[in-house]
Specification:
heterotetramer; A: mainly alpha; two-stranded antiparallel sheet; 8 helices; about 5% strand; globular; disordered C terminus; B: alpha/beta; Glutaredoxin; seven-stranded mixed sheet; 6 helices; 7 strands
Chain lengths: ~250, ~190, ~190, ~250
């Protein structure tokens, strides 16, 4: 655990720093992919950054909307560096919407653009695992194993390391096999891989958000995403079949 | 990649998808979190674990608790008057108690009253002139806490309250009892 | 069997044996049992865990403990008078306290006295007319228990004593504070 | 957990019953092996049973010797069905000694006899794991895993199941590869396999007997046995080399 990096007089929160690094590396890879797929690299990276920025704004606005009274009295609080006042669902929705609209306006082909963005998803997933390792979030269930991590007063599954290894593995899979084939395959392979490893690894977490009945929400969500990815994989394969290769 | 050839054949792709989702679903089902397991930790009737405490009335109606004897070596003997081996081992328990009480030994004879008659228990104790505390487990509490499976069952608790030996069945001889408590009595109280 | 061909060649067998034993030895080393980890469970300064208790003197010299406020929502704010963001967020804390104390809110301003001067802290409190309890962490105990890394750090504890939000850095605005405590105050005390 | 089997009015302790079954099955397999290896099956099974019986007697006498005063006053206690008054080291020593002497007198060839006895070792190891599963002994370290066992008030590694699977695996290895090759190979393969899995699996136990420094005694012992098995494997291979096959 290393929640803050002390660089001289500056205390930087390690987690957001690692995520920023992930965005930088992921966008760079997405640009390379865009080149390879014959897309305009600047448009693709603009789309990625626009999605992220609109996502951040949406997450803050979504949070404020839930506590509208407090924020109405003090609207300046919307502009705060506080990391605990973001709401993920609204952020995701806003970011995806903005990226979709921008992509349409710029005439980017959907599937190939998604293929270019696949490495960004993989790298962000790995960066999130590292960020959780630094902050001690996303901790594992208590377990005495020779590779257990002592965290929060117990020996636990090093769930953040599992997640990091999974992200690396899925990224490797994509690198080796996901960059050929019909348009959209690379993206769906990345998504299916990340969803499948989430379903598997969530079982070792000690902080799962639970639904009634003790179901782990991340596993249920992961299964839905996995099912969608597998169904779309077949659909896109079918639609790509006659013309072969990329549409 | 092998998946790609699967993809091109719907007769193979849909079963593959179904299997993946089935395995994932079973895993998700199996890794649900038991939501009501925040029960307080119980002591367990197993060697190395703290002896589960109990409080029962003795034959004079006074309440006696296992915890009262912390610092002494305690033999907890679960018995019933109709059980042959239980009857047979009582003299050995009495002898050991007579001999070693001064060194810090206590014998608690927990009568499994729920499956015995109190009168029969009393007359057996009188006949055999047992002087160590006899406790009446009328509500079957101790039998359940100590997961009694066969009579007699004997638990040997050290001075710090840990179970150090579990002896299922009998009759126990004096030598067996002494061999199990000798080292424990030697510990500093 | 592949091992058999290894066996016939000592130049391959002895390295194989050495590697097997080395791996086994490392595994054995790695799975040693930490013999001194029977320490009592500590509370942890993380969301979802019980807030570590503390007892400190306030500015009048009375001892105040976090546990005294069980049943109320508590904002534990770690601050120092030389820290700009800490100073900047104090009015927000005071406003929220004025407004919501009646609903069961408590603010504890824990001055990190070990890295501040008591005189400076007192004069800052007087200047800003802070009315919530200001506690002096002279021995740096609370800073250490709460693993203080940067000032200000704010921990929001619900009525049952669980940490529900950890806010590192500042200044916190009134809206942020209210958004974090609104739901907690709505819980039944 | 099922520490006693209730058959009508009879309460049988499950653990010893399973071990008895293991002896029966293991001896039957040893006899089959003896036939295959050209040894007298009756001599081999007599050797196995003699070793076990002398081992039991030795274990009881060894226990009594440690508490000689109590037993001297009450020698009849030596004949008791109490399972808690056996001492393993003395029993092992006595059993091995008796079996060795009997084997020598009967002129049994050492290595081939050991080969014939190998399945007995594997079966007994599996039966011991089942016996511990029945009694709740040999329990695992606390760990929250989807396959954890709730035992002694905690979710734990199902260490007894791990041990059972390991015994089955080693037995399978022996069955497939251990029954050919130079004399003594099958036995040493079985021993090396059981020792290696002990070293690996002891890490997941919650009741390990510890040496100073927190070393688990079973792992240290297992390593020594493993080293010895590997060294002897080479030696016996060497001595068998010129004449090939069985000496």
């Amino acid at each position: 655990m290393l929640p803050t990096l002390q660089i001289g007089p500056l205390a930087m929160p390690t987690g957001p720093l690692l995520l920023l690094l992930g965005v930088w590396l992921g966008t760079w890879l997405a640009e390379r992919e865009a080149d390879r797929l014959g897309l305009n690299r600047d448009t693709v990276s603009a789309l990625a950054l626009l999605g992220l920025i609109v996502g951040l704004v949406g997450a803050r606005l979504g949070y404020a909307a839930r506590y509208s009274e407090a924020y109405a009295a003090d609207p300046l609080s919307l502009i705060s560096n506080n990391l605990a006042t973001f709401s993920l669902p609204e952020g995701l929705a806003a970011g995806l919407l903005a990226a979709t609209l921008y992509g349409r306006r710029q005439g980017l082909p959907l599937r190939r653009t998604l293929d270019a963005l696949a490495p960004l998803a993989g790298v962000l997933s790995g960066a999130a695992a590292l960020a959780q390792l630094a902050s001690g979030d996303g901790f594992g269930a208590p377990a005495q194993l020779p590779w257990s991590l002592y965290l929060w007063d117990d020996y636990r599954h090093p769930s953040q390391l599992y997640a990091l290894l999974a992200a690396l593995g899925v990224f490797g899979l994509w690198w080796r096999w996901g960059r050929a084939g019909f348009a959209g395959f690379g993206f769906l392979l990345m998504i299916a891989g990340l969803a499948a490893t989430t379903v598997f690894l969530e079982a070792f977490r000690g902080d799962s958000l639970l639904l009634t009945g003790g179901w782990r929400s991340a596993q249920v969500g992961g299964l839905i995403v996995l099912a969608a990815a597998l169904v779309w994989m077949r659909r896109w394969a079918e639609s790509a079949q006659p013309g072969q290769s990329r549409t | 990649m092998p998946v790609r050839s699967l993809l091109l054949d719907p007769r193979r792709w849909w079963p593959f998808t179904a299997i993946v989702l089935l395995v994932g679903g079973l895993w998700t089902l199996g890794s649900r979190v038991a939501t009501t397991d925040e029960a307080p930790r119980q002591a367990n009737p197993h060697e190395g674990f703290p002896a589960p405490d109990f409080a029962l009335e003795n034959l004079s109606g006074e309440t006696v608790a296992l915890a009262d004897y912390r610092g002494q070596v305690v033999i907890v003997n679960l018995w019933a008057s109709w059980c042959g081996p239980c009857r047979a081992e009582m003299p050995a328990l009495q002898n050991v108690y007579d001999d070693l009480a001064a060194d810090g030994l206590v014998v608690l004879g927990v009568n499994s009253t729920a499956q015995d008659s109190e009168a029969a228990a009393r007359s057996f104790v009188a006949e055999n002139a047992l002087t160590f505390p006899i406790l009446l487990d009328r509500a079957d509490d101790v039998s359940q806490t100590y997961r009694l499976r066969s009579l007699p069952s004997t638990f040997i608790v050290d001075r710090s309250g840990l179970i150090r030996a579990v002896l299922i069945g009998g009759p126990l001889s004096e030598a067996v009892l002494r061999s199990k408590i000798e080292d424990l009595l030697a510990d500093a109280p």
